[in-house]
Amino acid sequence: MSESSDDIGRRTTQYITTRGIRLESLLGFGREAKVFATDNQTALKVHDDPDAFQRELLTYLRLATHGIERVLGHHVPKLIDADDRLLALEITIVKRPFLLDFGAARLDSAPDFPPEVLETWEQEKIEQFGDHWPQVAAIMEWMRANAGIYLLDIHPGNIGFAK
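-> structure tokens emitted (163 positions)
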């Protein structure tokens, strides 16, 4: 087990102990965080990267300020609790169709990528999403226009469609 994973485990234990909740299962993990289901029927996301935690927390606060719970029919988790010291977010669990994971999101301004990088990125996303790509592009535009949120970590695990 890596030092980073040990640290996430320690912070996860601190979070659940102080709030009197239990973990039920691991929902997912990535470069920057682990996500667990809790006995409160919530998801606990514990970050490894303070910057990703801060971006995600600010995005959830922006969503709450705008009262956004759905985006073009896709459920968006709501922030339940956050702990800056533990880099932990507790959010609602949502079912398909969903829009998840805002650790790479940017508020109010798009990152400055060269045109060829954007072109390659878009081609990859078109291949990943296939027939759903127009809906994904519409969700991204809706978030930008209505909440000033620029979504960057776009893949089928973060934008799920009804099966």
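The chain has four helices and eleven strands.
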